[in-house]
Amino acid sequence: MMTWIIAPWVAALAVFSVTVAEAQQVVTVDLEAGRTIIEDEWRAMYPRTAVVDWASNVLYVQDDEEPEGIMAFSLTTGEWIRTIPTPTGDGPAELTEGLRSLAVARGGGVYASGLVRVIEFDALGQFVRSWTPEAPTRDAVCDFSGAPAVPTQGGVVRRGFDGDENIGPVLAKGSVIDAPTIEAGVAITMRLVSSRIACAEDEDVAYVVSSYDAGPDTVFVYRPGAEEGRITLPTDFIENPGCVRESRLGGQTLTRPCPMWSRNLRASFDDQGNLVLFGSDKTVQGTIIDPETGCYAMVRTPSNRTQRIGHIYADSALVFRLDTGMQYVEGLGDVEVTYGNSATGVSMRPIRRVSGEPCPGMLPSVI
Q: Can you spell out the DSSP letters for 25-43?
């Protein structure tokens, strides 16, 4: 489903936990510098599914050119490398209700996840195997110490040598949610389906991000043999909980909650092993957190509605340029809108330091 955003001139507007340290630094992404990798008006790439194999400089992403496949592009030249088929279906090499998320596999290759199974492909895009986790419906996947893992109720399920392995205080009984009422079960299921997961490359640890009806996301931490932990998100640049904004559209006054950067966050890691959490706010892109110390950097950009930060590597950010077009709105006629789901361009943009002291081991080459 395509979402679109009206141009601003039209509609003005646990057992252990890591507590974030006092605000350390603020950085910004320079959207006017850097280099363009892909610029193609006929592309329709989906940033929320995009993952990067930095070792081989390959971007894996869904694109409308092949709705039932993964497209691989070189981040060096921007050229298309290959398309990996992920047909919809119930066969061992098919995904029930289609592709939902991707993760880079350790040593190269990629995992493609649907609501039921996970398919593994090697670095050349060849089918390796499929896996149906003993877990409730969900669509996120990561590489946990060399094997695919998915979120479940109260933890993570990892593919093991002799069957699936539960990590954390898992509550679900296989694919069955543990809930006191039907209503609670539905709420847990919906939250689980929308959860995101990222696993550290050099540690046995998974971070699961869950969103709720209100308030910021929660980041859960799961390690083998340990209880559930949490990472507290920074509260910098967040409006008061009761904040609302008014806008006029077609002669009507609309009210809505003020945007919160810490909702619907996408999780990944930078090249230093720091946890990167980015949302879809047009100015506060998100945060980079040292998961061991809680020291963090806030990442901002000039106010814009067409640039979305995807990943961090060294002193740069991978940026998607969202598609724009004209849309007829009753009472307003044709107006320019931004299509919030798809992108026509990809670039690497430098990060600049704005204020504060850098966290040890975070963005060391940024000046």
A: EEEEE-TTSSEEEEE-TT-
